[in-house]
Amino acid sequence: MDTQTALEVRPLTGSCGAEIFGVDLSRTLSADTVKAIRQALLDHNVIFFREQALTPEQHRAFTRQFGEVVVNPVYTHVEGYPDIMPVIKEPNDRYNIGDTWHSDMSYMQEPPLGSVLYGRDIPEYGGDTLFANMYLAYELLPDALKQMIDGRRAYHSDRYLTSRISERNAGRSTRLKADADAQENLALHPMVRTHEETGRKCLYVNFPFTWQIEGLSREESLPLLNQLYAHAARPELACRFRWRKGSLAFWDNRCTMHYACNDYQGKRREMHRMTIAGGRPQ
């Protein structure tokens, strides 16, 4: 049983991200420690832990302390663990997944609160993950752009993934379910959402899943959407995390995007990801 609540939180950048020291995530955490970790997540958008030795059961137990765990609707799962998604790139794989700036599963009616990604087999270098602060992405928009998107909504769809399952699975060990295209996941969300815990506004669009703006065709939507994507990808909005075996990242999916670097060809990388249920964006 964990009794330590005095966590050491070290910010990584001026925009987002912090490393947390002084806690063993394999143990049952006290209510105070869970509260402190959650506050660090709200303060920094994404938090990282080093040198954690977790079994799948311990990974699950840690994640469940922050909310209900959900099953990924389109990707396969670890055998025996339907709520754990394997993120694997073998040495002979050409592609990884997540190599565009995105927010996880924004095509769901109730997108995830967050994700917890654990590094099991990590190459000596390469495979970093970048995270972007979508609070700042909104706050730094020109006033004219804010006025264009405040109060507007956009459709999010999983068709970027599921419209070409065979093509997406070729050259990847992280595989889509064979029946992932049985029914399109489609949701209508505000382009600027208000975080339900912090009350702050953040930009809520992302390249692979935001399909079109309500009232416009996809072709009419793309000029504005592409401008927003480019703005949100500015380096000063992001932090970059270098993985080691036993590292764990926990990000707030409501106010961040992330990007997985595919720069470790010929090397193996294996991660386990769990996802925490969220609410409907407002």
TrEMBL record:
Pfam families per UniProt: TauD (PF02668)
Keywords in alphabetical order: Dioxygenase, Iron, Metal-binding, Oxidoreductase
Keyword Oxidoreductase annotated: yes
Boundaries of every TauD/TfdA-like domain copy: 8-275
GO molecular function: metal ion binding; taurine dioxygenase activity
SUPFAM superfamilies: Clavaminate synthase-like
Family: Belongs to the TfdA dioxygenase family.
Name of the protein in its database record: Alpha-ketoglutarate-dependent taurine dioxygenase
Source organism per UniProt: Bordetella bronchiseptica 253
